[in-house]
4-hydroxy-tetrahydrodipicolinate synthase (Microbulbifer thermotolerans), 291 residues
Amino acid sequence: MFSGSMVALATPMYADGSLDWDSLHNLVEWHIEQGTRALVAVGTTGESATLDVGEHIEVIRRVVDQVAGRIPVIAGTGANSTSEAIELTEAAAKCGADACLLVTPYYNKPTQEGLFQHYKAIAKAVSIPQILYNVPGRTAVDLLPDTVRRLAPIANIVGVKEATGDLERARELLDTLPKEFAVYSGDDATAMELMLMGGHGNISVTANVAPAAVAQMCEAAMAGDADTARAIDQRIRILHEVLFLESNPIPVKWALREMGRIDGGIRLPLTSLSPEHHATVREALRSAGVL
């Protein structure tokens, strides 16, 4: 079981868009030191949509090799083509990833039956543990609870990252799925409440810049210590807001550059954070105690 704070790791780049392996190495070590429980390599926060297949696999391989079993590595291998998702998932398994995170197919808007068949085909093709990922605000398709329940009996589909921020839906999933099937938050603003309800962790954007605080909040929430969890979450809540002032990962990459962690490059069609937001994000980092 994967649990606790799982960072949706940004992929460091230079100004020209080339990959910055030294900064990636340093981020991995920092997260392990700060108490992050798992690394999600090349998820959507990691700009999976603009990395080519070779780069995608190389990031996964380097992260797995560096981590060397100290914490789990979950590889983002979703795609809007089932065959491509299978190819990436097979590659991640060969690299030694502990699990894969598969975003719903974006743009082509499959039916619920299409989603079921898509995930069933990937699970059948590759035996690695797989986590479903529902983020309709980015993909224009919503993986409904009924479909998650249809997929849950498949042995190597082990959980779902629910990023709608809808706590009523989270409650339904927790109440109706098998106890061993993990429900993770993919929405930092509501993650604490989901874990207090019985959720298994948070696949987090905020953890990119405040890994220790998010890790501590997750541990408290999962232990049922609501007072401690709420106190920590209140201290970093401003980050949950400002890191989405523009499309993720635009603000978080700018924040990491401001913290001296990465060079700050980002690939088109995304561009760097608009100047009018710089002071707001900088002040939020100071308020949260991470700058």
User: Anything to note?
Assistant: The first strand starts at residue 4 and ends at 8. The CA atoms of residues 61 and 95 lie 5 Å apart. The chain is about 45% helix and 15% strand.
